[in-house]
Design goal:
Elements: E1 47-48, E2 57-58, H1 89-94, H2 102-108, H3 112-115, E3 126-127, H4 131-135, H5 167-170, H6 189-206, H7 227-230, E4 235-236, E5 254-255, E6 264-265, H8 268-273, E7 300-306, E8 315-318, H9 319-323, E9 329-337, H10 343-349, E10 362-371, H11 372-378, E11 391-396, E12 406-410, H12 411-415, E13 422-427, E14 430-431, E15 441-443, E16 456-462, H13 469-473, H14 490-494, E17 507-512, E18 518-520, E19 530-538, E20 547-551, E21 559-564, E22 570-571, E23 575-576, E24 580-587, H15 588-593, E25 597-602, E26 626-634, E27 641-646, H16 669-673, E28 677-678, H17 680-683, E29 687-688, E30 691-696, E31 699-702, H18 715-718, H19 727-735, H20 738-745, E32 748-752, H21 754-777, E33 787-798, E34 803-809, E35 828-835, E36 839-844, E37 858-864, H22 879-885, E38 892-899, E39 902-906, E40 909-912, E41 915-918, E42 921-927, H23 931-942, E43 950-959, H24 966-975, E44 980-988, E45 998-1000, H25 1005-1011, E46 1019-1024, H26 1027-1040, E47 1049-1051
Parallel strand pairs: 3-35, 7-16, 28-32, 42-43, 42-46, 43-44, 44-45, 46-47
Antiparallel strand pairs: 1-2, 4-33, 5-6, 7-8, 9-10, 10-13, 11-12, 11-16, 13-14, 13-15, 17-19, 18-27, 19-24, 20-21, 20-25, 21-24, 22-23, 25-26, 26-27, 29-30, 30-31, 31-32, 33-34, 33-38, 34-37, 35-36, 35-38, 39-40, 40-41
Helix pairs in contact: 25-26
Length: 1052
């Protein structure tokens, strides 16, 4: 009888240990628009859709909130916003007689990252509400007329203010073996060297002592030296329209299933070179849905049983109770990989039901946590009768499409302390990364990745194994003849206990030579030089990899490979939980003569890896010999011979490798000829949730009916609806099986025109080249076109009752010097704040720095807050402006850029979407916070005494107090009267005398004729203000003066 109820918990440390998550007083931050807009976007009034996701904004209205209905904004003095009862925002959101605002949610939702920084890493604060929930709530007096809604791929609807032969021969001694009775053999120098290395390896293994698993210090903060080596601190633009917008992810991760959910691996060589302990940011990622937005401070782990009584004291445990209580904390290196590791090779033989993984979905980290057995004993786990089998179940907090992700293992396995089954809260010395289970996950050393449940919220003891969808229908190896889930035996085998994947299979992989690597053969004697072949190997269940062998003759003879282990790899006198790295020296001549380089591993039971791949429906547990093929090719540049290597498959979804996929029988050119030909212009019209078309392999599909049931959610499709991009084809092929292809074919409506095919190919090449160019130009700057960078609020200044200047600090450079914004004059910064379903994006124009000489590691945003008001047409007020107004010093936003397409180059020269213009005289129309891009232009021109460009500004506001940067503008007008003039238009003029020149009322053509430079060859006009001001006054008046849209008049 397993009388574990009489056992004590694993002996705690004699003194209360120092590994506790206590908040320090302070912490420091540690530290990249695809394509280009068309020129027409800057014709005032035309719709602008930025790459960052700000639809439905019209050119010329940059930085000005028009709300959803373009209605006038109520005056500040009339707002009736009340925020005292912020705790009840969820009730008010549902109450038709009240309304909730972003301010209410922000104030009521603590930013634990500020309060307890040690419990958090680079993941961002998330507001627990969606922007659409705020916008679409019913408030008193709300009109319910049907409104044209933007694409559901993004919820931002307007711009806020401001902006990787024989066994003896294998030992290398057969040729030098003396005849029987001949005495001591004579060894060559090469054989001596081999024996020395072999003896050194024996001594190394004999020296291993048991690793007690003691943690090395407390969990680290973000200001430690290795923070940026371990963690990514920037956000990818690809995630901002998904619920994972708040998660920093390495741009080096190769995404396998599109943008969302994230399933990704590193390039194999990059993973290997990162070391035996995988940096957190390079660990492969497997997800079935959105990452749950959990916090250390509020997360609970439920421990119970079903039926009741198997655990006498069920309990919910807090993270502090688990991590800082009386339980012994263990920290050990553990390797595991996806059950589908090397599935891409299987997919080349025959398509499986799942997406591609190369040999890089394998990682090793230092995991810190407490033993599951200790927690169960603390909860009163009862004795398991000898005749019964009990199971321990685990469930995560994520919400995949097929129900909770749950699984179970035999309870006896978890209760054996030598198995180190852990509840983990630390990863490589810090809290868990969100993609890897923050704040709590399960680690079962020696098991496959599919059993390592992330975001663990519930464990319970049962007398039956788990019956959840993912336990039954995932992580299984069914017989080869089961080729679909529709097979009559499929269900029986998926429910059969023998098909489940448990322990990791014996595995070895060649990493070097890398895929595509070349060895030059031009130097004399190069073939006699040696090359070090390297790779990784591991085995499941804690078994040690006893031998790794390399063959260059198809498996007839084998060479011995030397092993390298992690530090302190031994647990409990016999367990090895982490992978090994291996190496073998061979002559380049041997590589050149070989057809294949083959590796195999052997475990303690003297089992070897199988020679050939055994295909199965789910593509699981492929551990056949890994084969790399060398071939002699001619260098394109030198025309000299080089030795080039090919792995079976390329990394990620990339093409290449010596294995070739079977031809797709579905492509029938005769059938294609019958399809209707559709242009890109026609396809572009079908980009909404009510009418969505996709281009796949140059065919057009109406996928509107798929949106409601698509496992990845509607947004995964809507991101590409109506768009001419090859990305969707690449991502589709990486994810979908024959079932999905059948559904796809039912949606086929036509084929892409020849012009469309050509345009897509050219656009893909253009976008790749342009992005590479922009990134190269912006090296060293904080603003990057494809990544969001953190910026910390360090100061706020009240300008008026509703307007603030926010000063944000940029992350320092790698050398510790202040960060550099690097914003071109006239361009904008896109900021992201994170809501429950996705990021909300708005663009703002900083008022400082404008010039490179003003860079000091910070930047200022001048933002007008559209406060909530029951009297307003949109009572909740502005989304992002209210969010910013509720921020406290130390909190962060994310920034990306530059955005916008108008750049001032100096001395009257402009770059507007790649086309150069020159204006000697410039007219500017500003309205409210639309002043900020104009301020950059004015400040740049007037700060340069050699710039002879002259500027005239008409600034429209409701009241005198609404005029932004009034003193700065007036100072320039006074100091540079011949270069700059300003005229104000005030709707509600002041009663007292003021020090500005103004007209009361509204902007009209007469005022512009009076104060603007007349239309001419080198006279240009730029507009930024509310839609009403631009559409009804500025644009008509300028046209009447002779200005031409897209030629001499442009809108930000």
């Amino acid at each position: 009888m397993p009388a574990w109820t009489q056992e004590s918990l694993s002996k705690p440390w004699p003194k209360r240990h120092g590994v506790q998550l206590l908040p320090p007083d302070a912490y420091e931050d540690a530290y990249r628009t695809k394509g280009s807009d068309r020129l027409e976007r800057h014709r005032p009034g035309n719709l602008v859709e930025q790459a960052g996701g700000e639809p439905n904004r019209r050119a010329g209205t940059y930085g000005v909130l028009g709300f959803e209905d373009d209605a006038p904004v109520p005056s500040v003095g009339k707002h009736t916003h009340v925020v005292e009862d912020t705790a009840g925002w969820e009730e008010r959101l549902k109450n038709k007689d009240a309304f909730a605002t972003v301010r209410d949610v922000k104030i009521a939702s603590a930013d634990f990252k500020i309060l307890y920084p040690r419990n958090h890493a680079f993941a961002r604060y998330v507001l627990p509400v969606t922007e659409s929930e705020i916008k679409e709530q019913v408030w008193p007096g709300k009109k319910n007329e049907p409104e044209a809604k933007p694409s559901s791929a993004t919820s931002a609807s307007s711009i806020s203010s401001g902006k990787a032969s024989s066994d003896q021969e294998e030992d290398g001694i057969a040729d030098g073996q003396a005849e029987e009775g001949s005495g001591t053999p004579t060894l060559t120098s090469e054989q001596h060297r081999f024996l020395d290395k072999l003896l050194a390896e024996m001594d190394m293994v004999a020296s291993f002592r048991n690793n007690p698993g003691r943690p090395k210090g407390e969990l680290k903060l973000l200001d430690d030296d290795d923070a940026l080596q371990q963690l990514e601190n920037r956000l990818s633009i690809d995630d901002q329209s998904t619920p994972d917008s708040w998660i920093p992810r390495s741009s080096e991760l190769l995404r396998l299933t599109g943008k969302h959910p994230l399933n990704a691996e590193m390039d194999l060589l990059r993973l290997f070179e990162a070391g035996m302990i995988t940096p957190t940011k390079f660990h492969y990622v497997r997800s079935h849905g959105a990452v749950p937005q959990l916090t250390w401070e509020t997360h609970k782990l439920s421990v119970s049983s079903h039926p009741l009584g198997l655990v006498s004291n069920p309990k919910e445990w807090s993270m502090d109770e688990l991590s800082s209580g009386d339980f012994k904390i263990v920290e050990i290196p553990v390797s595991f990989g996806c059950d589908g590791n090397r599935r891409k090779e299987m997919n080349m033989i025959k398509k499986t039901s799942a997406f591609n993984w190369s040999a890089a979905s394998m990682s090793t980290c230092l995991w810190r946590g407490v033993l599951v057995r200790d927690i169960l004993l603390a909860c009163g786990l009862q004795d398991q009768p000898d005749e019964e089998r009990w199971y321990l179940n685990f469930e995560g907090a994520d919400e995949p499409s097929e129900g909770p992700y749950a699984t179970s293992i035999p309870l006896m396995h978890a209760m054996n302390s030598a198995n180190d089954v852990m509840l983990v809260f630390g990863m490589n010395g810090r809290v868990l990364h969100p993609d890897h289970g923050y704040p709590l996950r399960l680690i079962i050393p020696g098991y496959v990745g599919g059993r390592q449940v992330k975001w663990l919220k519930k464990i319970w003891v049962t007398k039956e194994p788990n019956r959840s969808h993912y336990h039954i229908w995932d992580n299984r190896v069914v017989p080869t003849y089961i080729d679909s889930r529709d097979h009559p035996y499929a269900s029986a085998f998926f429910h059969h206990e023998s098909t489940a994947c448990w322990e990791q299979s014996l595995q070895s992989v060649i990493v070097k030579p890398a895929h595509g690597e070349r060895i030059s053969l031009e130097k004399k004697g190069c073939l006699e030089q040696t090359y070090l072949v390297e790779g990784y190997a591991l085995s499941g269940g804690g078994d040690r990899v006893e031998r790794v062998e390399l063959s260059l003759d198809g498996g007839k003879t084998w060479k011995y490979c030397f092993r390298r282990f992690t530090d302190s790899p031994l647990r409990h006198g016999e367990k090895y939980w982490a992978w090994i790295f291996w190496s073998c020296e061979v002559k380049i001549q041997e590589l050149a003569d070989a057809y294949e380089i083959i590796v195999r591993a052997q475990d303690g039971r003297k089992n070897n890896q199988p020679e050939h791949i055994s295909w199965n429906l789910m593509g699981m547990m492929n551990n056949a010999w890994y084969r790399v093929r060398p071939r002699l090719v001619q260098d394109e540049e030198t025309a000299l011979p080089v030795l080039q290597f090919q792995h079976p498959v390329a990394a990620g979804n990339g093409e290449g490798g010596w294995m070739k996929p079977l031809a797709d029988d579905a492509n029938d050119s005769k059938e294609d000829d019958k399809l209707k030909t559709l242009s890109l212009e026609e396809i572009a019209k079908h980009n909404t949730k009510d009418d969505a078309w996709l281009i796949l392999d140059n065919k057009v599909y109406d996928v509107t009916s798929v949106l409601s049931w698509h496992p990845g959610g509607a947004n995964a499709i809507l991101t590409y609806a109506g768009k001419a991009t090859v990305d969707v084809t690449n991502e589709y092929k990486g994810i979908h099986d024959s079932y999905a292809n059948g559904k796809r074919d039912g949606c086929l409506i036509g084929k892409l025109s020849e012009d469309g095919v050509k345009a897509m190919e050219e656009d893909a090449q253009r976008a790749t080249k342009e992005m590479a160019k922009v990134k190269a130009e912006r090296k060293g700057f904080a603003l990057q076109p494809d990544l969001f960078t953190q910026a910390k609020l360090i100061k706020r200044k009240e300008v008026s009752s509703d307007t603030r200047v926010y000063t944000f600090e940029l992350p320092c450079k790698h050398d510790g010097s202040p960060g550099v914004l690097g914003l071109p004059i006239g361009r904008h910064v896109q900021i992201a704040v994170h809501f429950k379903d996705q990021a909300v994006l708005r663009s703002y124009t900083p008022i400082r720095p404008v010039l490179s000489s003003e860079e000091d590691g910070t930047f200022d945003l001048l933002v007008k807050t559209y406060l909530p008001s029951a009297d307003s047409p949109f009572p909740p007020g502005g989304t992002v402006s209210n969010y910013l107004d509720c921020m406290v010093e130390g909190e962060e936003i994310d920034i990306r850029g530059p955005t916008g397409g108008i750049t001032y180059l100096g001395h009257g020269e402009f770059d507007i979407e790649g086309k150069e213009y020159h204006f000697d005289k410039i007219n500017l129309v500003a309205g409210g916070s639309g002043l900020t891009p104009h301020w950059q232009l004015i400040h740049a021109i007037l700060s340069d005494k050699t710039d002879e460009t002259v500027v005239s500004l008409i600034d429209s506001n409701k009241s005198y107090n609404d005029i932004l940067m009034r003193e700065e503008l007036q100072r320039y007008a006074d100091e540079c009267p011949n270069r700059f003039k300003i005229w104000h238009v005030i709707s509600n003029p002041p009663n007292e005398e003021v020090n500005v020149q103004f007209s009361d009322g509204r902007l009209n053509g007469g005022l512009m004729e009076e104060h603007f430079y007349p239309a001419g060859d080198r006279v240009g006009a730029f507009l930024c203000g509310p839609p009403g001001l631009i559409d009804k006054a500025a644009l008509p008046g300028l046209k009447e003066m002779g200005f031409v849209e897209g030629e001499t008049v442009f809108g930000y």
